[in-house]
Amino acid sequence: MPVATVDYDAANYRQSPISSTFADLVAGLKLVELWGTMGWLDMRQRYRRSVMGPFWVTLSLAAFVGGLGITYGALFKMSLQEYLPYLSVGIVIWTLLAGFIMEGCGTFTGAEAAIKQMPAPLSVHLFRLIWRSLIIFFHNIIIIALVLFIFGINPGWVGFMSLVGLCIVVINGAAFGLLLGTLSARFRDIPPLMSNVVQTLFFVTPVIWHADSLQDRQVIADWNPLYHLIELVRAPILTGFPTVVNWEFSLVFTVVNCLIAFLFYARFRWRIPYWL
Fold first, then answer.
1. Which end of the chain has fewer CB within 10 Å, C or N?
2. What is the pTM (predicted TM-score) of this model?
3. Would you write out the chain's pLDDT as a tens digit for each of its 276 residues?
4. Contact by Cβ (8 Å): 227, 201
5. CA distances from residue 112 to 268, 273, 275 in whole angstroms, order as listed
6. Going by C-beta distance under 8 Å and a sequence separation of 6 or more, which residues neighbour residue 205?
């Protein structure tokens, strides 16, 4: 079966990997109708014959937030009005980040049949992943809205800054998809490895606990890029502006993350169809 992926031949990959990779990303981004439809069909296929569809994820997450909020709020000696909004926003953003990492491992391996049969830029499957993750995220936003309404929290105009933080989270999600997707196409041990890494990161990232509770060990949070990414979205909704450290660390990490992912993808992009 012939392998058809992009409009460039192998010689172009070797002659100008940077420019051809950039062209691949731009061409893939322009095919909004294609990856948008594919992402939506992925969701319909995943929840086929289900009445609730993706809302099952939302209900499960809501139950998790409620149970954890009541239990850990008592352990941390914090009122529900203080702890539950902090927890709900953190969990929803963490779920998005963890989804980017975990599903990013299958960016290309999960689209093996389409890559081998459809003459389209490989990046189409990256944007398909991002759109699919955002569909679930938009469903989970209901949890945040409900908690804010119950406790009468109004972020005001500052809350719109969380949209900037969300864009930065999505950009990093795209970088995770490129890097981990390419690595997983070559090494199939990456997905189970990342599953363990994500599980560990959940407990060492200030999602269900406050960073200042670490006291003299706060360096654990200060050098955790996922914490700063979460704060870019959580702080404008709950406490106001993110700190300068949050912005600086997040922006530096985003630049480094995107650069590494782009260069790695540029170097091995033409091999991906043969690894699948």
1. N
2. 0.87
3. 344 444 444 444 455 778 888 888 998 889 889 888 888 887 778 777 666 666 777 888 888 888 888 888 777 778 888 889 999 999 999 999 999 999 999 899 988 888 888 788 888 999 999 999 998 899 899 999 999 998 888 888 888 889 999 999 999 999 999 999 999 999 989 999 999 999 999 988 988 888 888 877 888 888 899 999 999 999 999 887 888 999 999 999 999 999 999 999 998 888 888 887
4. no
5. 16, 8, 10
6. 94, 221, 224, 226, 227, 230
Tell how far CA 153 is from the center of its chain: 26
Element (H, E) at 150: helix 123-150
Length of the chain: 276
* Amino acid found at 201: L
Surface-to-core class of residue 67, CB atoms within 10 Å of its CB (0-12 exposed, 13-18 middle, 19+ buried) = exposed
Is residue 93 within 8 Å of 169, Cβ to Cβ?
A: yes
Q: How far apart are CA 135 and CA 130, in angstroms?
A: 9
Question: In 3-state terms, the chain is what percent helix, strand and coil (to 5)?
Answer: 80, 0, 20
